Amino acid sequence: MPAPRALSGxxxxxxxxxxxMSVQENLNHDASARPVxxxxxxxxxxxxxxxxxxxERLGCVVIDSDARAKAKLNHPAVKAKLVSWWGDDVLGVxxxxxxxxxxxxxxxxxxxxxxxxxxIHPMLTDDxxxxxxxxxxxxxxxVVIDAPLLMEAGLDADCDAVxxxxxxxxxxxRRVSEGRAWDASELDRRESAQFSLEKxxxxxxxxxxxxxxxEELCDEVRRVFREILGKLSRNSIES
Length: 239
Known about the structure:
Shape: globular
Oligomer: single chain
Radius of gyration: 19 Å
Number of strands: 6
Largest sheet: 6 strands, parallel
CATH class: Alpha Beta
Distance between the termini: 18 Å
Number of helices: 10
Strand order of the largest sheet: 1-6-5-2-4-3
CATH architecture: 3-Layer(aba) Sandwich
């Protein structure tokens, strides 16, 4: 795997220029080709979803694994199973599953986390396969897998490229404090359940830095996406 490349510091294109370049790149993409599969990883609060949104602007289909996993918790069979494991305490006052209570269990007990993953992940695998097939049928240039535990679950093996989203810890802490009301200990607790940032960075193919504006970030992502498509095209010709 090539060494990750940090693409930062270049001047961002204007929104109009950015859109024009995005449209041209999609016109150059072979609609008959299968979509490129891109995984997105990074630290808590780094902005993985922001990178996925930039790729969506380029015509990619985004699989938000976290949102899909949360949706699966509403499935009656899943709810019944969790109640059988952990009792009625897992339910909120409204009778729905209490996701914060579940998080407090799985982020403290690795065995319980694995048990939950073994219940949910097969459902998510089926969903991903269906989304990729639909994306190929519609000619989407790429499918983005935005999953908090992408590498831990081995999903990076299914990706053509993996992007690591980097951001300073103080920036990430500010984001989760303002957006989720988490303090430093909560950020550390959640990251301790994942691979280290160093390991993710080493295993990724590309690094983008998310410490500026949205347009600056999307400009970086556009260049990375162009490089990924170019590399896959060259490999296809050579093979």
